[in-house]
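This section describes the prediction task in plain terms. A model, or a person checking by hand, is given the sequence of a single protein chain and must write out its three-dimensional structure as a string of tokens. No templates, partner chains or ligands are provided. The sample shown here is typical of the held-out split.
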Amino acid sequence: AGMLQLGGHAVYLGPHDIQMGSREIPADVARNLERWVDGIAARTFAHGTVEALAEHARIPVLNALSDREHPCQALAALLTIQERFGRLKGIRLAWVGDGNNVLRSLVYGGTALGMAVAVATPKDYGLDAETIRQGRSLAAGAGGALELSDDPAAAVRDADVVYTDVWTSMGQEATAAARRRAFTRYQVNAALLAHAPAHAVVTHCLPAHRGEEITDEILDGPRSVALDEAENRLHTQKALLAEVL
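The expected answer:
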């Protein structure tokens, strides 16, 4: 939709069209596609595949989602926060849930823009050391902060934004039952939000597992800006395309 609105054309190539990694290596895919198109938006799951495409293509390669990062989603979240509060610097964002790809990108984007990012995850499901190092380095340079704990109530205290995502991401289905047990205290519900300021908003990258990481009452309630964020995925990705193409 974004390319069409910008006056361009988009070609969708699914896993059965390319069979990247089994039939054709990423380097060959990149070298072929650069002869036909002006840019590549890669949603490949494996982060190494995105990096390989970017290394070998002479055209822009956008990470539309990988198992490590989801920068396009973070851009949509940041625009949504900017629209609601009129600023990003000094905003406190609380993450409640899994230390996943969306969180990594929010840590990078939020701390680089002077936000305080408070993360609450179970001890075995937190951020990796490299993301923590980069996040704290970015925060130090921009006046932001990165705080880590396993206490959801402490994370949402003084928060302007409460963010959650699914407990089980793509490729983790075999551990879903164990994750549900580990994340029981991390549901975003009315009881948790009682610890947050009255002005705090709630968002989710969607789609949600309703009744797991967030309740219907909160996701559909007046504090939710999840659908605003969903809309802003279109606007931010159009802006990104206009910038790089």
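For orientation: Strands lie at 40-45, 61-66, 92-96, 116-120, 145-149, 161-164, 201-204.
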